[in-house]
Write a structure and sequence with these properties.
The chain is of the alpha+beta class and 109 residues long. It has one domain. The protein has helices at residues 17-26, 32-39, 46-49, 61-64, 68-76, 101-104; strands at 8-10, 52-56, 82-88, 95-99. A four-stranded mixed sheet has the order 1-2-3-4.
Length: 109
Amino acid sequence: MIEVFKSVAGHNLRYSPVAVKEALKLELLVENNVKIYYESKLIDEPAIADPIAVTPVLPDPLIYSGRINEYLRNLKEIYSMIVPSRITNCYNKTIKHHICCENLEKYRS
């Protein structure tokens, strides 16, 4: 059987409320297309089909209070926008979700 495999998934939580809802339902951070594959029975294990999920959240510009260069720099660096993420070990199927707390500070408004 051939299955879907995406090595890295990424989506933006600010613009993907459906993805947030589905991730909570599945208790697994997954991208929209993997969710569709799973619901369509094209894959059995979304975490294996999509072993790495990183979820950038755009920073709130109000927090930067005139520091536009810092805001633009953060927009260029994907790591600075990642808040939740997930890594799945495809061999033993261990799933670990992570929260980048230092990035979370950029989104409190």
